Amino acid sequence: MILFNVTVAIEKTVEAEWIQWMKQEYIPAVMRTGCFTNYRMYKVLTHDDEGSNSYAVQYFAETLDKFMYYLEHHEKQLLEEHRERFKDRHAAFRTLLEEV
User: Fold this and answer.
1) Cα separation, 44 vs 80, whole angstroms
2) Domains of the chain, start order
3) What residue ranges of the chain have pLDDT lower than 50?
4) SS3 for 69-85, per residue?
């Protein structure tokens, strides 16, 4: 099992809008790619920034090949939509993990 973790720090001024958009638009679009079998979204409780809150969105893929297909065929467009909508009001980093 492959875990693709995306941690996003989102400004509090757009946090509610971002959560709603992620749940109704972005995550469903990622899942429609067929590359992931499940996802989870968590609020990071140890985040220490007055202007933002952080969230970890985890996508689970059965194989590395499925994840690579996502990278090659879907990620660029989806990331562009996210960047366009939330421009300079977020920061993100990605981590790829393999279950052992």
Assistant:
1) 24
2) 2-98 (3.30.70.100)
3) none
4) HHHHHHHHHHHHHHHHH
**Given the structure tokens 């996502």, which residue do they identify?**
70
Tokens 């059965």: give the residue: 62
What are 32's two structure tokens? Answer: 């429609």
C-alpha distances in Å from residue 90, one per residue of 10, 26, 45, 73, 93:
4, 15, 17, 24, 10
Query: For the residues of the chain, what is the DSSP string, one character each?
Result: -EEEEEEEEEEGGGHHHHHHHIIIIIHHHHHHTSS-SEEEEEE-TT---TTEEEEEEEEEESSHHHHHHHIIIIIHHHHHHHHHHHGGGEEEEEEEEE--
